[in-house]
Amino acid sequence: MTLDEIIENFNYLDEWEDRYRYLIELGRTLEPLDEAAHNDANKVLGCASQVWLVTQVTNDGGTPVLKLKGDSDAHIVRGLVALVLALYSDQTASKILATDAQELFKSLGLSAHLTPQRSNGVRSMVERIKTDARAAMAAAA
Questions:
Q1: Cα separation of 132 and 121, whole Å?
Q2: Which residues are known to be catalytic?
């Protein structure tokens, strides 16, 4: 599902209960991670729930592109992972660094409806992805 489709579907829902259910459904659409990927190296620090992110870097004409996969042990957080991946996966490293996830979360009203722990977890996921993007750019230079 594309980010535009997710935003359109999200904006169609008026009740926050429905939006949380939609986040859970988004999480169910994630491509499963291999069990071996559920390891400490892929674990995102700073999340109350367990979150794992796997980054694969390819080069498109010398420009690093990051393909991301993720998982969580919590349903709503898994949906947040799906939302973050829709925003950042298959993007160039420079676009990732220029994209502000907080703007998306504000526009969807999620910033006001997430617990502080979940908000911190989202920030940790985004920072991990941006760190991987900076490393990919440095390796390509």
A1: 17
A2: 47
CA separation, residue 114 to residues 4, 73, 140 (Å):
21, 17, 36
Burial of 81 (0-12, 13-18, 19+ CB in 10 A): buried
Which residues sit opposite 2 in a β-bridge? Answer: none
- DSSP H stretches of helix in the chain: 3-12, 16-28, 75-88, 93-98, 101-107, 110-113, 116-140
The pLDDT mean for the chain works out to 93
Q: 39-92 pLDDT, tens per residue?
A: 999 999 987 889 999 999 998 788 999 999 999 999 999 999 999 999 999 999
How far is 26 from 36, CA to CA, in rounded Å? Answer: 23
